[in-house]
Amino acid sequence: MNWTKPEPMWREDTKLPTFEPLKQSTSTPITIVGGGITGITTAYMLAKEGKKVTLLEADELCNGTTGHTTAKVTAQHGLIYHELIEHFGDEGAALYYQAQEDAIAWIEKHINDHSIKCDWTREDAYIFATTEKGAKKIEKEKKAYERLDIAGEHLEDLPFDTETSGVLSMRNQAKFHPLHYLSHLVDEIVAMGGKIYEHTKAISVKEGENIEIETGNGATVTSEHLISCSHFPFNDKKGMYFSRMYAERSYVIAIEPEKEWENGMYLSIDEPKRSIRSATFDDKNILLIGGESHRTGEGADMSSHYKALEEYAARTFGIKNKLFQWSAQDLITLDKVPYIGPVTMNDNRVFLATGFRKWGMTNSTVAGRLITDYIMESESEYHSVFTPSRFKGDPSLKRFLSNNLNVAAHLVEGKVELVDKEPRDLKKGEGAVIQFEGKRAGAFKDEEGELHLLDTTCTHLGCEVEWNSGEHTWDCPCHGSRFSYDGAVMEGPAKHPLEKLSLENTRETYIIPDDPEAFEESTDHH
Question: What is the rounded CA–CA span in Å between residue 248 and residue 399?
Fold first, then answer.
């Protein structure tokens, strides 16, 4: 089967520093779990305050959502301000907007002060509608802009070939190369005495006089403060965050367009959503086209999402050359505002930052500043908006029930699903849910013909994972855990790999031939 491994553009032209795994137990005043833009930014800000920090990353720095972003640095987070006014009031909505604008200003000042070459550019951002229903939503959002004194303009058309029913701009937003920016922050953290360990997975937490973080390497880190910046909180016993968020996947392609492009960043509000921004790669002007969002584990054939984006790009801009494709996973909270602050009310030792709803470039900086304020015991007017312990009856209760009914449905459906595919049906490079010894199982046949057979029960809370053909992963539709084709954990909240199933008790060979007749002759099916 033809399959292109998804690779983000940002990592292709960036050489980030590398770090050894943690090999022996240590102590540090502050431990930060998660080496994406949030963990790195928070570590930098705390180090600037004179704090000694240790950052743990389960994989490599910036290899998660940060490395797979479209890198729009903007306060225009889709349709959000009308909704925020309804649920948080004018004051809460204004604070959310101002927090984002402050983050943009902080990033820009840091880039200018340190002369960081990261393609920082100020551009207007636009949301646009393609239906009459969407046009009415644009009208409501424009009124929210006016109430909050947000600089924007209601337009009719776009500078490219897409029919619209309404366009709303937000002036003077920004874009950049995220890894070129973060590479500088990493160097600064190390220069200020910060410790960074890669390939060091935080497994569990024990709280006593101090906080003890156990890692998958067998080493323990003892700290006064713990900050979880690991996308999904790795220690989810406190706060039950797995029940208060859901995961979405979205997709991006990078193309060299045939048509000339005008500056600006664009996002459609009607389905199927499309995100568009320009960038440069290898001295060429290119476009990043994103969209095709769906709940993790619930999409169609995942490779079809890339195809849909290609068709849109070809129709709208023409494709001279397709350069990259990749996907990302993001968490969405009950009220669409991130959880940033103490993991539970009045906890002054354990903090988290999560649920950025695909707008992590600004919210990561918001998180770094707010958590630094908490630890430095400084008051911030933004704390109340982002505090994880908040619960807005509308819409939080409705979405809480909806999310968890969805989880319950998947628990039941996965257990009773009838599967008629068997290992012999797989071609090289193909994975699927199969029937194995009368039970549901997962199988992937690699290019050498080796079969990787797994129990499809997610090790988090027992939902059944689904095969993702676009990424060659096993994805959980309940809480967004993701596993590699051989069962290793790629994204939490799961901490343990999928159970591997053995073929030793059958007469099936581990290397399954492509010839079905040869397979029939060499197996004894149960």
Answer: 15
3-class secondary-structure state, position 356: coil
Whether residue 479 has pLDDT greater than 70:
yes
In order, the DSSP letters of 276-321 are EEEEEETTEEEEEEEEEEEETT--SSTHHHHHHHHHHHHHHT-EEE
Q: For strands 220-228 and 72-73, give the pairing.
A: unpaired
Residue 69 has pLDDT above 80, yes or no: yes
Cis peptide leading into residue 21 (ω within 30°): no
Give the distance from CA 278 to its chain's centroid: 21
| CA–CA separation, 377 and 233 (whole Å) | 23
What does the pLDDT read at residue 247? 86
DSSP state for residue 394 in the 8-state scheme: I
Q: What are phi and psi of 344, to 5 degrees?
A: -135, 160
> Which amino acid appears at position 47 of this protein?
A
Say whether pLDDT at 513 is over 60: no
Q: In what order do the strands lie in the sheet with 466-468?
A: 466-468, 473-475, 482-484, 489-491
pTM: 0.83
- Give the number of other Cβ atoms within 10 Å of residue 146's Cβ: 11
Characterize 413-449 residue by residue with b for buried, 16 or more Cβ atoms within 10 angstroms of its Cβ, and e for exposed. ebeeeeeeebbbbbeeebbbbbbbeeebbbbbbeeee
How many CB atoms neighbour CB 2 within 10 A? Answer: 5
Q: What pLDDT score was predicted for residue 297?
A: 66
Task: List, as one string, the DSSP characters of 178-247.
Answer: HHHHHHHHHHHHHHTT-EEESS--EEEEEESSSEEEEETTS-EEEEEEEEE-SSS-S-TTSTTGGGSEEE
Per-residue model confidence as pLDDT tens digits over 319-358 = 999 999 998 889 999 899 999 999 988 899 999 999 999 9
pLDDT above 80 (res 206) = yes
Indicate if the pLDDT at residue 375 is higher than 60.
yes
The widest CA-to-CA distance across the chain, in whole angstroms, is 74
Q: What pLDDT does 416 receive?
A: 47
Rg (CA), the chain: 24
Burial code (b: 16+ CB inside 10 Å, e: under 16) for 42-70 equals bbbbbbeeebebbbbbbeebbbbbbbbbb
CB atoms within 10 A of CB 300: 12
The answer to whether 260 and 157 have CB atoms below 8 angstroms apart is no
For helices 37-48 and 178-191, the axis angle rounded to 10 degrees is 40
